[in-house]
Amino acid sequence: MSRNFFLLLLLCVKLTLYGQHHEISAKLLPQNIIEGKVVYRLFGTSSPLKLKLTANGYANANTMLADSLLNDCNTGLHFSKENERGKYEMLEWKINGEVVTPEYNETKEIATFSFTKAINELTLECNYLLKLPALFNDLGYSNGYTMLTHWFPEVLNTHSDLTEVSITLPDSIAVFTTVAHKTMKGDGHYTIAYQDTMPINSILISSLHADTIQVESKSGKEYTMILKPGARQISESKLSEFLRVVDLNAKYQQGKTNYLIDDKPIKKLHGITMMPHSLIKRKPRSIYPVYRYTDKGNHMVGLYYSNMFKAGQKVHVILNPHFSFKNDFTWRLAVGGNYITKKSKITLITPSLTYSKFHYFTNEKDNYTLAYHRISPSLRLKFKGRKWLNFNYVHILERNALYTAEGIEFNTLPSSLYRLAFQQESRKPLSNLVWWTELDHLRYKTVLGEEKMFTKFTTSIKNSWKISTKKNFQLRLFAAYFLQNDGRESSNFSDFITKGSIALIHQGQNDYAYDELFVARKNQDGIFDNQVSSKGGGFKNAPANTSSLGESNDFAYAINCTWDFFAPAHDTRAFVFGDWGGYRQWQGDAWKMKNLYSAGLGFTLKDKITFYLPLINHADINQNYRDNDLGFLKRWSFQFLFKDYYSGRN
Predict the structure, then answer these.
(1) What's the whole-number average pLDDT of the chain?
(2) CA-CA distance, 167 to 428, in Å (whole number)?
(3) Degrees (nearest 5) of the Cα angle 329, 334, 338?
(4) Do 568 and 583 touch, CB atoms closer than 8 A?
(5) Mean pLDDT throughout 549-575?
């Protein structure tokens, strides 16, 4: 229901507070204005007398409340527009019937009355008009709901025992919930009793009545489900299974026992956990069907098993086999767990073991498919202060085809990777800095049977600044150097010949550790070759896979930046990107330092997939496009935003 329709229905709200010598009344008017009066009768009052005007904190982004919200990473008020803000439009004060004017602090969030001596009995009266803000915190309006919290001036350093609030509402208005000890209703009249440990002014109202369902979960815990009229009904079986998930999910356990079922987005509701219908699903399954495509028309079906939905599982298991009509079989197994430590600098220990067998190349002409096996035990340590240390060993077996005079010979090339990685994150209200560094040591065998090795150091620093509640500007610095490399002076950069080349453009054909889930990998042809990754130098281009463009066996660096210019939702945005970098290559008998740059447009959909269109490129990139007849449509690239458990550095 629109806000205007809600305001037409909302004729008036009258509240009377009966407690220790206090009276409060209020009326909600159109245009989200509250006309109210508060009367405090105080005894033994000493100077100074201070009142908190919380609602004035919504006046702009420079108030004490705005600073407090920003410190809690709530940026809504900081980036708010003028028509979304609120404040007291009028304040009139009287003490014992005489008009007085208090002293205000700079932001008018504190009013102070000073007396020459203590007053035995004092009556403080305030008449006010309050413009409600949009719902940034716990006062305001949003999508047909109005949250009333701290909507009147409050005397500081006072104490009240059990307090009752009497609310009379028109038939079209309903109180959904309050942070209260007890609520009674009769003929549109609400009487709410508050304990002294609870706020006496937290009320959620709406223009529509709601059906309230008391449900007991399988664990025995009771929940209040609030269902708006006209909403799709929920079967008892679905509701019961949903509450079972609520019991197991720590995110929902932190909420209150009131769950509101509504598909409208609500910024924040105090004491309520918002539940769209999409979250009320059937019982989470441990096994469900999956689909996979591995390029060259290879469609695969399989199943995914996980015990991570079950409570009390100290060891998590994931099993993911795939079968295809071409008699291919691939699968993945992951075993691991998270173990919390106490009284230690290490707060979390995550050991894991993963095994995967996937295909990386299909030759349709000679009718064969090459697969790789990847076995990786790892140990991840989380430290206080958002720091992580990863110890990782990766053993890879690649099946390889070697063409000889006698025909095609198949052999297996082993490689062993030893990896130490450190990551540190620094979160601030308007920025997020991530520093990541990694040391890789790889021992491998080439297609010619040669034993080789390298040691590579990689580091990156990425900072993201908020420019609105949904938009960001991101800058990333990247550098990598081979401390030791048997193939440093090779002019070949293929993972078949010289593994581990630093790649400014990270794709399946140079992902030597098989860290990521690429649909197409080495020496394939087709649109799936255009899948890129943000690792390496972070360039978004998709050149021909036989190119040495942007690759080095020695040293490379890059700078990447993105700027969101359109963001209809937090997980959907359009942006401008720019990449610039350099890399060192051995050519002939000399080293050459080369540069690359690229810029264009990108679009991220639901944080699931991102599309890139490079528009301005270095001459070497454009020459690669022309040499390989890559037209406009073939220059697009894309990135799947996988979030996969126990699958390397994803």
Answers:
(1) 82
(2) 41
(3) 165
(4) no
(5) 94
Strand order in the sheet with 140-142: 140-142, 145-148, 203-206, 174-178
pLDDT reported for residue 30: 76
621-643 residue pLDDT tens = 999 999 888 888 888 999 988 76
Exposure letters 625-643 (e unless 16+ CB within 10 A, then b): beeeebeeebbbbbbeeee
Q: For residues 268, 272, 276 and 280, what is the CA-based torsion angle, rounded to 10 degrees?
A: 150
CA distance 424 to 505: 25
CA distance 465 to 472: 5
Average pLDDT of 246-270? 58
Cα 585 → chain centroid: 39
Using the CB atoms, write b or e for 352-378: b if 16+ within 10 Å.
bebebbbbbbbeeeeeebbbbbbebbb
Sheet-wide strand order for 211-216: 211-216, 222-227, 258-261, 273-275
307-311, 381-385, 493-497 — which one is most confidently predicted on average?
381-385
At position 3, the amino acid (one-letter code) is: R
Distance CA 571, CA 610 (A): 11
Residue in this structure with the two tokens 């019937």, named with its chain if needed: 97
Report how far residue 159's alpha carbon sits from residue 169's, in angstroms, rounded to the nearest whole number.
28
Tokens describing residue 111: 């009013």
Per-residue model confidence as pLDDT tens digits over 282-302: 566 788 898 888 777 778 899
Give the angle 480-486-489 at the CA atoms, nearest 5°.
75
Name the DSSP letter for residue 248: H
* Residues whose CB falls within 8 Å of the CB of residue 489, separated by 6 or more in sequence, listed in order: 553, 586
The pLDDT of residue 365 is above 80: yes
Q: Assess whether pLDDT exceeds 90 at residue 394.
A: yes
At 62-75, the pLDDT tens digits run 999 999 999 888 88
Residue pointed to by tokens 């394939």 = 524
